[in-house]
Write a structure and sequence with these properties.
0% of the residues lie in helices and 24% in strands. By secondary structure, the chain is an all-beta fold.
């Protein structure tokens, strides 16, 4: 499946709820590509696998779009990050 656009809405932390609304367009070419044998994708927001997205958000979310081809042995391990919570 190919994405031609993604619109992401993320709730603001309580401390930022009164911030002015904002919108930013980021062409695909500005988002870091991820590629390993059997795995390809883009880092949409956050930092992982040694790269950082240009998109910033006060809650510091992590969003990654990955395509994994298991037929050729592709696999991915979730990045270790202190910003993930249950």
């Amino acid at each position: 499946m190919t994405f031609h656009g993604v619109q992401i809405w993320v709730a603001l932390p309580e401390a930022n709820e009164d911030d002015a609304p904002s919108f930013a367009h980021h062409p695909a070419g500005t988002l870091p590509e991820l590629a390993e044998p059997g795995v390809r994708g883009r880092l949409l927001i956050g930092s992982a696998y040694g790269v950082t997205s240009p998109i910033e958000h006060p809650s510091r979310p992590l969003m990654i779009d990955l395509a994994i081809d298991r037929e050729i042995g592709g696999s991915a391990t979730a990045p270790a990050t202190s910003s993930l919570s249950a």
